[in-house]
Amino acid sequence: MTEPENEFSFLPAQASDAGATGPLPRAERLSLALADGRTLSALRYTPVTATTGPAITFLHGAGLNAHTWDTTILALGLPALAIDLPGHGDSSWRDDAAYVARVLAPDVAAGIRAWTDGPQVLVGHSLGGLTAAAVAASAPDLVRDLVVVDITPGIDPNGGAAQLRAFFAGPTDWASRDEVVDRALAFGLGGGAREKVARGVFFNTRIRPDGRVEWKHHFARLAHDAAHAGGLSDSPRAERTDAVAAVLGTTGWEDLAAVTAPIALVRAERGFLTDDDEQQFRAHLPAARIVRMDAGHNVQEDQPRTLAALVQSI
């Protein structure tokens, strides 16, 4: 694949996908030093006519990064913030490999306080959805509305999420980004469009000094180590756990029950959630709104305009 000039070089093509015809928003990379020495990174998008800061904050899923929201944000046309969760994108990895909602929530809350001026419509996909619930429960002053995309606490880790575990359990480095694109297409990821998959791979990988390509996110290393635990006696025990199963714990129900903001669940028709998962969500949160969309698990990439319209209506 041809290397773009910078991480925002794709915005014109993404704006076309989003049906956005006006001037591109100002896009900037943000960085926040956390108290323990780690760094939290994010993207902020500001339309040229905007007079206020972001009122919508987006949190991505496991193995993704803030750029997964680009097209949705362009379709939205409003000031927005997209945060790289710890261990993903340009945010620091955690030494303890603890990528569960309640551990990630304080970092996200710190980012929202630093980069926005008021309560947010907080939109979280998958791991980001569970993290968003934990943020809304622990810092209600930061969240005006909560939108959870294609995730509920306690879903079966051997269901749809198993595909991601298998995908990331493969090699952790590659000769080229094209090899990563080929693997993603072989797993049926990215909707089958090579150009779209290549764009995602660019955002989610980096080139090491030795010329090899590696994943930016920690989940690939964790999944690989879990799959090959028998031969990794020198690996930290935390890195030999099943990171996907850890993400999908049931404590999220307690967080959702504590949320005072209005809640909406977006269920992807071809996503991770089953009818039983939806019924359980209704039983736990009868006042919540449930919206179905014709999309795979990554709704923000499959149906960015539809998701943007939903967020805009809140």
From TrEMBL:
A Pfam family recorded for this sequence: Abhydrolase_6
Record key words, sorted: Hydrolase
The keyword Kinase belongs to this UniProt entry's keyword annotation: no
InterPro entries per UniProt: AB_hydrolase_1 (IPR000073), AB_hydrolase_fold (IPR029058), Carboxylesterase_BioH (IPR050228)
Entry keyword annotation includes Hydrolase: yes
Residue segments, region Disordered: 1-22
Name by which UniProt lists this protein: Hydrolase
GO molecular function, a single term: hydrolase activity
Lineage: superkingdom: Bacteria
Domain AB hydrolase-1, residue spans: 58-309
